[in-house]
Design a protein that fits this description.
The chain is globular and about 55 Å long. The protein has a single domain, classed as Rossmann fold. It is of the alpha/beta class. The strands form three sheets. It has an eight-stranded mixed sheet, with helices on both faces.
Amino acid sequence: MYIMDDGIRLNAKLDMPLDYREGQKCPLVVVIHGFTGHIEEAHIVAVSKGINAVGFATLRADMYGHGQSDGTFRKHTLFKWMTNALTVIDYARSLDFVTDIYLCGHSQGGLLVMLAAAMKHDVIKGLIPLSPACMIPEIARSGELLGLSFDPNHIPEVLYSWDGRELDGNYARVAQTIRVEDAIERYRGPVLVVHGDADESVPVEYGIRAAEAYANGRLVLIPGDDHCYNRHLDQVVDAVKAWLKARKDAEN
């Protein structure tokens, strides 16, 4: 399926709870991948299936320039992704079976859902950043991004990701304007931050600080695990399931 965002097609997949019956209502979790990622990555699919197992629907969506969505990787920015996320949330709100909406995102997608939750704080019931790349705006302002060093006041027209793909300099220009601390302060709902303590891409300290900064934050560290949870993905899924089940039970 595709969700339209001002002429841009966003590839998306809706999965219902395992015990869902037609006519029932249930909460839904929007699930967003990370930088260079897509909705069929192992960790995204596993988390989504775990969410379905505890009675929540999931709506996975490829962001601009990623997966099967429109746009080019080179031209994507966090501003474009934020517009995408707001559109996906509005689509989820239009579904007649949906009761409450939660957000879950990995890496850059984790940062994205933190920003989206701040903007939609009145409608987002809970937030699950997985290994959130909160450092992107900070390192863009310092001139260190994607392993490259540059003058933050004279950003090059082309940057390169670790796999050699080109990225427009506007990616860094946009990132420099984002204040993660403002987004954290604005969202007062429950938050679960999950982070591997051997994350090679996003230092675990960023996840720890984010969980501590939220008014209602909780942190689960995955011992010895990396950025995409290649060692203990089952522990990540179990943490998400337990937290969501507790939220659901509290509502009943």
